[in-house]
Specification:
188 residues, four-stranded antiparallel beta sheet, two-stranded parallel ribbon, alpha+beta
């Protein structure tokens, strides 16, 4: 949270910090956010423990999309703790690393599609202030990303376009124009 002027020490400080970095370069330079993918308990090569654990898949996903919806043009994952430099252990087949890989795969797939839409960013209408939204459409296809930055309350997202929409990563079709996002939830 780097002592943000707002005092924000919640998970949504990632987006607020991306805004601060963008402002520091007058919005003229790429902004890469460095996100933590290791437990604070692992500092100095110690094993992970439950008092200061690694971020969960949901937390990793939120931090990444929060940075992206605030204009971050890249992400660098910071890990430390053991000889590989990736945190607590080298078990890349663990549940933690599978979740980390899932987040990475989703970002790659969604952003390839988003960047491939050579249309305009679309206005998202009147959304709750706790929601951060990034949306683009070329008239035939659209990608909409919404993040609830409020860690305590649900907020209503209103789809800004008509048509058929599907959730990522489940592929479930959205059948309503209004969707409630839980605290720190991401809607794609």
């Amino acid at each position: 949270y780097a002592d943000l002027p707002s005092g924000n020490r919640s998970r949504s400080c990632v987006g607020e910090f991306a805004d601060a970095v963008n402002r520091s370069s007058w919005g003229e330079k790429p902004t890469w956010m460095v996100l933590q993918n290791w437990g604070l308990s692992e500092a100095g090569g110690k094993p992970e423990n439950s008092t200061r654990p690694r971020p969960s898949k949901k937390e990793l996903r939120f931090m990444a999309w929060n940075a992206i919806t605030h204009g971050s043009t890249g992400l660098a994952w910071h890990g430390e703790g053991n000889k590989s430099g990736f945190g607590g252990n080298d078990d890349f087949y663990s549940e933690y690393w599978q979740g980390f890989a899932d987040v990475q795969k989703e970002i790659k797939a969604v952003m390839e599609r988003f960047m491939g839409l050579y249309g305009n960013d679309i206005p998202t209408g009147k959304q709750d202030t706790a929601l951060r939204v990034l949306a683009r459409s070329n008239g035939n296809e659209s990608v909409i990303i919404s993040v609830n930055e409020d860690g305590k309350a649900d907020h209503k997202f209103i789809l800004p376009l008509d048509g058929k929409f599907y959730l990522s990563p489940s592929g479930e079709e959205i059948s309503t124009k209004e969707i409630m996002l839980k605290p720190y939830e991401v809607l794609i």
